[in-house]
Amino acid sequence: MSIESAPAHAIEPTLKARVDRAAYLAGLLKSRPELSAELAELQGVRDRALAIAQELAIPTTRDEEWRFTDLSSLVQINFQPIHDQPTISFAQIESFILPEAVNSRLVFVNGIYAPDLSAVDDLPEGVLVGNLSAGIQLIPSLQNYLAKQQGSEEVFTVLNTASLIDAAIVHVPKNQEVETPIQLLFVSTSGDTATISHPRCLVIAESGSSLTLIEEYVTIADGGYFTNAVTEIAIAENAQVSHTRVQREGETAFHIGKTVVSQARDSRYTCNAISLGAKISRHNLEVYQTGEQTQTTLNGLTMINGEQVGDTHSKIAFTKPYGTSDQVQKCIVGDRAHAIFNGKVSVPQAAQLTNAAQLSRNLLLSPRARVDTKPQLEITADNVKCAHGATVSQLEDDEVFYLQSRGLNQEEARKLLTYAFAIEIINHIPVASLKANLTTTIRTQQL
Amino acid sequence: MINENSEVILSVKDLTADVGDTQILKGLNLEIKAGEIHAIMGPNGSGKSTFSKILAGHPAYKVTAGEVTFRGQNLLEMEPDDRAKSGVFLAFQYPLEIPGVSNLDFLRVSYNAKRKQEGLEELDSFDFDELVRTKLDLLKMDAAFLSRSVNEGFSGGEKKRNEILQMALLEPKLGILDEIDSGLDIDALKIVANGVNQLRKFDNAILMITHYQRLLDYIVPDFVHVMEGGRILTTGGKELAFELEARGYEWVREEEAAEVAR
Ligand SMILES: Nc1ncnc2c1ncn2[C@@H]1O[C@H](COP(=O)(O)OP(=O)(O)OP(=O)(O)O)[C@@H](O)[C@H]1O
Ligand SMILES: [Mg+2]
């Protein structure tokens, strides 16, 4: 375990690694799927991303942003886009559908819209929840948002954009409140070969609107695959977005996900990011406050074991006065797993009277479990409140004993205490069935 | 209530125990029969809590010699949870706080663990709710305590009451109460004592640790033991508690020393 520890890099032949990893990226770009004719107007978006990507490489641990997350095992696999999209029956995914969103859900299989598995009848008029071609037809301003967010030049994001063939589009018009939660379900299947998919979401909340979004990554296969997801959320003045992101990829999967949010003045954004699956996962969560008096709340929970690596890199960028942010990141790490949290908060001179709080709490369940947590506050404004803290703890013998003395066996006691640590985050999830489901997952997790 | 023919609930013979490299218990002997109430008094650091935690099976203490038999079974071989399910209950001197676990869930999980051991079906939440409410009444506790996290933010007295609430549910054969009276005002003390008294039966026993004779007015002991330096120095009836309160522990030490000299 370490809190803001000194770098300890494996010695790597830098130049060679870079060349290999650039070549690897070039391979992925070369095999990217074709854009369909009806989306031809997006060719420019893809091409621009391609041009940027051609200058880049898959990062190594020498890259400061990827210090602890080693992608060597990823670049050894020749991932290919899926060629024969499998037919998935409703029964195969039924258990993932939230009852609260049964008529407000989109299902994507390997990043591609599955109309037969989706249903959006339960939404107010004027609200669009659909795939990319619906978005292109119905939202004239779509191209002002797609791939236009800050941070969209990061390597995996450009790879996603260059590979764009479909997307989930959510558009909520001005002053429209959508009470029904909207579920975006991304299902991975595995083919004969290792597959890569590039799920994409674009969420536009116009001024004064509100919505609840549940974004989930699941699998119905156990083969190795790579999900490279990007979600862009644009929140206009005084709008409100509650976003819950659940990553439960398969054991041998790789998941790299980007969530990038822009918040106009007086807007409110909450993200509950739950990360449970994948062999190696990375969530880049970036929030850009562009107006005054903007509120950002980030709740994160990573729960991993075995040899999993779970990495969260967040960034909250203030630009104007009176912004607030409240962030709690919890990691529960078992076996030989490794959790990483890097929390950037940037408060430039113009962002006076900002109030930012960040707390990183970590629970190690085994002596070989490891966590690297690092707050990264970049504050130049002088009249601000910024609090941060990080703790790393283990289950206390006394606590376990207290429960044992009341008849719980050691394993039950450890499970209950672990659940107790996690539940604070789960309790923020606004959809009861999902909350209950995750509670069960955590309550029964093998420690 | 002393009855020579009652079942022996707890028998401790020449018990010695260490924490780390330090010996804390140094040859402790004690026998408790069904129906009896025993009190242990003794100066700070004499090993009272250590003894109680060893009975409950705390892993920090290492028993180095001696025997502990609970209703005919070798208690020292049992896991803490098996001891609990077989009827050993320790009300902690310092009950732990467990944020995130509701008191109600905790009580139910613990109650059902015991039912399972007894081969009974688990109580569903509806039936359990009803049961727990009768126990709350016994301790004059507000139902609001059930929805709060276990002991989190409870006052000292509330924590102690919560311990007895657990005991009331689990109905142990041996209730070990470690300073259940410390920090209680007189009204709370009466409520807690009354709760304990109502749990008394011919087939169970109570071992309470206290610094204050006052508790013994409400839960009247059959035996009072004085513990010092990890041993029972002397044993008497309830009068001994008055004497200790009036004269302190020095005279017990002197008498013991005199006896050893003889
Ligand atoms: N886990 C431990 N680690 C180190 N020392 C311990 C531990 N537990 C007990 N001790 C020591 O053993 C001795 C007996 O402690 P214990 O808590 O049993 O005393 P006590 O009689 O209950 O005292 P009090 O009346 O103050 O509650 C003390 O010197 C204490 O510091
Ligand atoms: Mg004590």
Structure write-up:
The complex is a heterodimer of chains A (447) and B (262). Chain A has 447 residues and is an alpha/beta fold. Chain A is built from ten helices and 22 strands. In chain A, strands 1, 2, 5, 6, 8, 9, 11, 13, 15, 17, 19 and 21 form a twelve-stranded mixed beta sheet that branches. Chain A has a ten-stranded mixed beta sheet with strand order 4-3-7-10-12-14-16-18-20-22, covered by helices on one side. Chain B has ten helices and twelve strands. In chain B, helix 6 packs parallel to helix 7 (186-199). Chain B starts with 7 loop residues before the first strand and ends with a helix. The relative contact order of chain B is 0.18. The mean pLDDT of chain B is 93. The interface between A and B is medium-sized, with 23 and 30 residues. Residues 48-49, 93, 178 of chain B line the site of magnesium ion. Chain A: This is Fe-S cluster assembly protein SufD. Chain A: Belongs to the iron-sulfur cluster assembly SufBD family. Chain A: Residues 192-421 form the SUF system FeS cluster assembly SufBD core domain.
Topology:
The complex is a heterodimer of chains A (447) and B (262).
Chain A: E1 2-3, H1 14-30, H2 43-53, H3 72-75, E2 80-81, H4 90-93, E3 105-109, E4 112-113, E5 128-131, H5 132-138, H6 142-145, H7 155-162, E6 168-172, E7 182-188, E8 195-197, E9 200-205, E10 210-219, E11 225-235, E12 240-247, E13 254-263, E14 268-275, E15 280-289, E16 295-304, E17 309-317, E18 324-333, E19 338-347, E20 355-364, E21 370-379, E22 385-394, H8 397-404, H9 410-426, H10 432-444
Parallel strand pairs in A: 1-21, 2-8, 3-7, 6-9, 7-10, 8-11, 9-11, 10-12, 11-13, 12-14, 13-15, 14-16, 15-17, 16-18, 17-19, 18-20, 19-21, 20-22
Antiparallel strand pairs in A: 3-4, 5-6
Chain B: E1 8-19, E2 22-33, E3 37-41, H1 48-56, E4 62-70, E5 73-74, H2 80-86, E6 88-91, E7 98-102, H3 103-117, H4 125-138, H5 144-147, E8 149-150, H6 156-170, E9 174-178, H7 186-199, E10 205-209, H8 213-218, E11 223-228, E12 231-236, H9 239-247, H10 250-261
Parallel strand pairs in B: 3-10, 3-11, 6-9, 9-10
Antiparallel strand pairs in B: 1-2, 1-4, 4-5, 7-8, 11-12
Helix pairs in contact in B: 6-7
The complex binds adenosine-5'-triphosphate and magnesium ion.
Adenosine-5'-triphosphate binds next to helix 1 of chain B.
Family (chain A): Belongs to the iron-sulfur cluster assembly SufBD family.
Domain SUF system FeS cluster assembly SufBD N-terminal (chain A): 40-184
Domain SUF system FeS cluster assembly SufBD core (chain A): 192-421
